[in-house]
Amino acid sequence: MAKIFRNPRLLLLSRSPNWSFPLIGVNSRSIETLAYEEINSSTNDETPKKATIFFLHGLLGSGRNWRSFSRNLASVLSKSSSSPIGLKSGLWIVDWRMVLVDLRNHGRSAEIKGLEPPHDLVNAARDLADLVKSRGWAWPDAVIGHSMGGKVALQFAQSCGAGDYGESTILPKQLWVLDSVPGEVEARDSDGEVEKVLQTLQSLPTLIPSRKWLVDHMMSLGFSKSLSEWIGSNLKKSGDHETWAFNLEGAGEMFKSYCETSYWPLLEHPPKGLEIAVVRAENSDRWSPNVVQQLENIASRRKSEDEGRTSVHVLPRSGHWVHVDNPKGLLEIMAPSMTILPLA
C-alpha cells in the first residue's frame, strides 16, 4: 500500500525551477492508457538534455502519493546537474520530467474501461509501455517503484530486455525498487495485514455512508488509526455516499500476482546497461533474514561485463512507507546515482 505525505519541505534551488503540473486523465488515442500526472523542473523545450523518471505507487495507492517526494528529487537533481561539476562532465540536464502513474485499478486509471484482465504484473507493466507509445515519449531513463510498484518496475525492465514491447524499446538505465520483496511472498513471511485489509474492504457495502463511518468501523475491527485514516483517504464522493477510488476486485488480483511472482533471476543477471537498486527500509517488517542474505549475496557477486548490476541500500529510521518515514534519507541514497544517469 501507499500513503500520502502531506507536509512537503521542498529543497530549494539557488534558481528555482518553473514547476509544471498538467493533469492527464485518459489518452484520447485508440490505445487505452494509464492516467498520470506530469511534473517538470523546467518549461524550456530547448533544454540540452532531458531525463524522464516514472514513479509507481503501491497497492491501493495512486501517483499523487509521490508528489512531494518527486518534486524534492527533481529539485536536487536539477541543482546537481546544473553545477560546475555537471557542466564539466557533459551531464548538464536542466529538465527532469517526473511521470506519476496511476496503475490499473488505482486512482484515475480505475475509471478506464479499456484496461482489461488479467490484472497481473505483466499487464500492469505493459500498460507503461502502451503509455510511452501512445504519447510518443522517449522511453523512461529510470523507473521508481514502491512496494507493489517495485515489482511492476521489475516486470517492465524484464519485458523491455526480452523485447516484448517491440524493436524500438529502450531499457531503463536504473530501477529503484523501494521496500519491495523481489521474490514470492509467503504467508509465513507476512503478518497478513494486507490480506486482512482486502478481506475487510470486500465485506463492506459498495457505497460507504461517510469517511468517518469507515474510519470508526476499521478501528473497531482492530486496525490502527493511521491505517484506518489512510484507507479513508481513498474514498470519493458518490451522491450522498462515498465509494472507492480504486477497483477493489482488480487490485486484489494484482496483489495475488505480486505475491506469486519472483524476479530473483533478473536481480542475479540484469541486462547489460541496467542498474537495479533495491532499498530496504531498516524497520520494515517485510524482510525475512533469508531474503536479506540472498539480496546481499547477489549485490556482492561480481557481474560479467555483459551484465548490469544490482545494488542494495538500507534506509535508516524508516518503516515500509519510505517516502513518508525518512524522505530526506531516501533522497540522499537516490540522488547521487541518478545525477549521473548516462543519457543519450
Automatic annotation (TrEMBL):
Q: Which family does it belong to?
A: Belongs to the peptidase S33 family.
Q: What is the designated name of this protein?
A: AB hydrolase-1 domain-containing protein
Q: Does the keyword Hydrolase apply?
A: yes
What PANTHER family does the annotation carry? 2-SUCCINYL-6-HYDROXY-2,4-CYCLOHEXADIENE-1-CARBOXYLATE SYNTHASE, AB HYDROLASE-1 DOMAIN-CONTAINING PROTEIN
Residue ranges of every copy of the AB hydrolase-1 domain listed in the record: 53-331
Which species is this UniProt entry from? Stephania cephalantha
InterPro entries listed in its UniProt record: AB_hydrolase_1, AB_hydrolase_fold, Serine_prot/Carboxylest_S33
GO MF term set: hydrolase activity
What would be one Pfam family of this protein? Answer: Abhydrolase_6
Q: Which UniProt keywords apply?
A: Hydrolase
